[in-house]
Amino acid sequence: MPAQNPAPDARAVDLHAWEAGGAENAEALFAWVGARLAAHETALAALLSVEGKRSPENTLLPYDEAIEQLSLAGAQAGVLNSVAASSAVRDQAQREAQRVAMAGSALSLNRPVYEALAAIDLNGADPATRHYVERTLLGYRLAGVDKDKATRDHLQTLHEKATLLSLRFSRNIQEGAKTIEATETELDGLPPDYIARHPTDAEGRSLLTTDQPDMQPVMTFAASAALRERMFLAYYTRAYPANKEILLELLATRQEIAAVLGFRSWADLATADQMMGSAANVRAFISRLDEASREGARREHEQVLAFARQRQPGLKAIDIAGRAYWYDQFRRSAFDFDSQSVRPYFPYAHVEAGVLDTAARLFKIEFRRSAAPGWDPAVSVFEVVEEGVIVGRFYLDMHPREGKDKWFSAAPIVTGVRGGALPEAALICNFPGEKEGDPGLMQYNDVVTFFHEFGHLMHAILGGRTEWAGISGFATEGDFIEAPSQMLEEFFRDEKLLQAFAKHYQTGETLPSETIKKMKLAGAFGRADWVRSQLYYTTLSLDLHDRDPAGLDLDLITKQLHQALLPWTWLDGNRMYASFGHLTGYSSNYYTYAFDKVIALDFFAQFDPRDLLGCEAGSRYRKTVLEQGGSKPGRQMVRDFLGRDEEFQSFSSWLNEEFEGELLAGQ
Ligand SMILES: [Zn+2]
Fold first, then answer.
1. How far is ligand 1, taken at its centre, from the CA of residue 556, in Å?
2. pTM of model > 0.90
3. What percent of the chain shows pLDDT beyond 70?
4. Cα dihedral 57→60→61→64 (10° resolution)
5. Category of 379 on φ-ψ map: left (φ > 0), alpha (ψ -120 to 50) or beta
6. 130 Cα–ligand 1 center, Å
């Protein structure tokens, strides 16, 4: 059907919680979310009051309005829970996120709404409308809407419990920062600006936190194995022991939900409406990953270990806390590449400009700074402009702040819809450069992360003009969501593109081609190991959700899988499961990253390497994938862009990129 949204003023709700005072004041946030939920209820009442024949206009439209209000409330409660300066507001935001999730779970079990949607006459409806209705009805059946009242009530209680446990699990990670002490000698190997940011006290000790900008350089550069191990254990126990019990309870709750719905395991339930379709298909994919990466990872590990033994005679093995450090040392030596040496070429401001410019040219849009307010003075706001018309807006909240979460993410802010609200999204990151005068020198993997998150952001914005809010932006199958982000990462490998923004922060010198070549070779080394890590996380996420969790020993299973899949020695005291935050959102479906990497690399192979930004693939990709949001199955989008299903070939060549000749030349 043509877009027949009500006139914009009928949707004229306050779109931004912070403009209603919700970022500073818990009561204002409560009221703002309450207003969204009231509008949600009103739309559902309108839907249910329809008499006679049901059509997309009289039934799907109010349903979509109800969904839009719920998404708006959920998105902003989620964001404020991550970024609000005041802990009272963060607490409130968490309660609001929970209130919204509960309204969502009540809706998912609302039988009259299900029956109304099922009664819509789809004759003559366009494919997007048909897909929206069919997917929604499938979601209803997976939620158990066709069960009796007592079972539905029980399911709702279980969903509410799972939501609460997930929020507590995430919150414990977010707020569980630890601090460790380091002696002056232990800081050996760390960059001078890092050491300058961590002055020693009277006893000659520096305090380091488990926040990313403090933690990551230690793991990569600190020569002291003792310091690396202390940091590693602090980092992976920052939500331990609290999250151990929470996780076990969450797994049990999920398994119970699956059992009530007639599924063998949570993993079968959670994949039923995904591209993957079943836990068995995930297992099959996992064994292809295992196969593809085993030999390469073995070879990489052997090389790194042999190198480490040369440097440190008597060294028996490398433990997991030494992996990043020894990889970095090896790369420096084998490729004559020092990852610190490129940091001066990646000051935050240049990188931001470069990422934005790349995306603008690739998707043929413009970004303009906006004076619109964000939730914090540190947030910069941009309008997305196409042919002179504003088509979306985004918020960059890019540096650490007291109370803000410590992760890197892209989040929807306003779900856009054609003829209605403009799509808005945000990046919430923790890149260096928060302090006045600090140029924020980034590591090259930080830059890759920036590209990655910006890929999500573009998906939300360019996919935000679909004809229904419920199929806008990120609303694809969950296991397609990491394809656009990982696709954009690949652009970082292009020399011309990099040189457009990688300029020395003091001298303005362009990052030399020779250095880029070395950086790329060094970057290619370690891919098999990266895939093995993904394999580890993926298998863990599946295994935890694909069995009866009664009597599950989290410590044992994480250790056994580690030993089966990774060559690095296990470190006792590692409680990584307690801060594996993706277990709440992805649950059993962490395979998404690796699966979408396969798709992303196949997508990227369609771009002309001589003219990445100018070739026709960019517009075609935007049109057949990004702009579709969730208006088609992911499988269909893959076929529309590639002309076939995804294949492993690009992934395998990426994984086993021949660098050995170069490696010897570099030594
Ligand atoms: Zn991502």
1. 29
2. no
3. 97
4. -170
5. beta
6. 28
